[in-house]
Amino acid sequence: MSDATANKRLIEQFWQDLYARDFAKVAACFAADGHYTDVAAPGPGATGPVAIEARLRLGLDMLAGYIHHHKSTVAEGDLVVTEHAEEWHWETGEQVVLPFVSVHEFRDGLIVRWHDYWDFGTLMNAAPQWWLEHVAQGYAQGA
């Protein structure tokens, strides 16, 4: 079992790196078999640091603004759970505040599971059509 305090510190840095859009640093937090999925979204998610970085870039690179609103983080053993919201802004003026619960599971100091729970309808009702098409095309290509 991992040290919950150390895992919580790693996740705090993880969020800082993610919202700075340093996707390579975020991907480096994952084990080779680490898996990331948006539970609400279609598809199997991404496995391994390279695929995880590509999936993050697909959805987030084209945002004009990306702001994190942290609410709480709890850690126990190998699990860290964060309640937060992400504020997304597109260059065409659309925006959304998307509430999340994120679950991270660790093994030997690396993330082996990241499951994001959020409301699909909230995002679909706010996102511009061009972005939805971009993400759908990326998913079809395996990102």
Description of the molecule:
The longest helix has 16 residues, at 4-19. The chain has a single domain, classed as Roll (Nuclear Transport Factor 2, Chain: A). By secondary structure, the chain is α+β, with helices and mostly antiparallel strands. 17% of the residues are buried. The protein has helices at 4-19, 23-27, 49-60, 120-126, 129-140, and strands at 30-38, 46-47, 63-76, 79-90, 95-107, 110-117. Strands 2-1-6-5-4-3 form a six-stranded mixed sheet. The N and C termini lie far apart (31 Å).
**DSSP strand tally:** 6
Distance between the termini: 31 Å
Q: What is the name of the CATH class? A: Alpha Beta
- Give the class from helix and strand content and strand pairing: alpha+beta
Helix content: 25-40%
CATH topology: the name is Nuclear Transport Factor 2, Chain: A
Question: What is the rounded Rg?
Answer: 15 Å
Q: Architecture, CATH level 2?
A: Roll
Order of helices and strands: HHEEHEEEEHH
**Structurally, how many domains make up the residues?**
1
How can the largest sheet be summarized?
Answer: 6 strands, mixed
- The DSSP helix count reads 5
User: Residue ranges: pLDDT <50 for 5 or more in a row?
Assistant: none
Overall mean confidence score, pLDDT: 94
